[in-house]
Specification:
170 residues; mainly alpha; Ferritin; binds MU-OXO-diiron
Length: 170
């Protein structure tokens, strides 16, 4: 059985994962409208992944006898100054999500809820990967700078990143 405190923080995380999905969906739309098909594919995939993160938490909360709250859908930003700016927002958002996961892990220890602690380890690992991926993509964007040819190659390149994300990571 989940404690009230544990239930509250898990429900907050459910909302955060739902919001993340919306943010990346908005980034997908922006990229697609700019003709960056590869980036759009990456963002659509990422949005789906975040929804899976939300669902995984919902199922866990219900399994443990809690009541998961399906969050409202908030409208995210839908304009971005540049590709670089967009990925910078993505990275800082993931850093924020990691901090939130760490805080929940901390609560699970204080509540002596070792089942939740065990479950949350998956999110801890996932966040390491997500932050690393965002940093890799940003490094590539910084290397390209304003080179249009480089941007074209980058857009193609990012498709292979999408292809390499295995289903079990989602
Ligand atoms: Fe589910 Fe990217 O955090």
């Amino acid at each position: 059985m989940l404690s009230d405190r544990m239930l509250e923080v898990l429900n907050k995380q459910i909302k955060l994962e739902g919001d993340s999905s919306q943010i990346y969906l908005s980034m997908a739309v922006w990229s697609e409208n700019k003709g960056m098909e590869g980036v759009a594919q990456f963002m659509y995939g990422h949005a789906d992944e975040e929804r899976q993160h939300m669902l995984k938490l919902i199922r866990f909360v219900n399994e443990r006898g809690g009541k998961a709250i399906v969050p409202d859908i908030a409208m995210p930003a839908n304009e971005f100054d540049s590709l670089k700016k967009m990925f910078e927002i993505l990275l800082s958002h993931e850093v924020f999500v990691s901090k939130s996961i760490n805080d929940i892990v901390h609560v699970s220890l204080e509540e002596r809820d070792y089942a939740s602690n065990n479950f949350l380890q998956w999110y801890v690992s996932e966040q390491i990967e997500e932050e690393a991926l965002a940093r890799t993509v940003l490094d590539k964007i910084n290397l390209i700078g304003d080179d249009k040819g480089g941007l074209y190659l980058f857009d193609n390149d990012i498709k292979s990143i999408v292809a390499n994300i295995s289903p079990e990571q989602q």
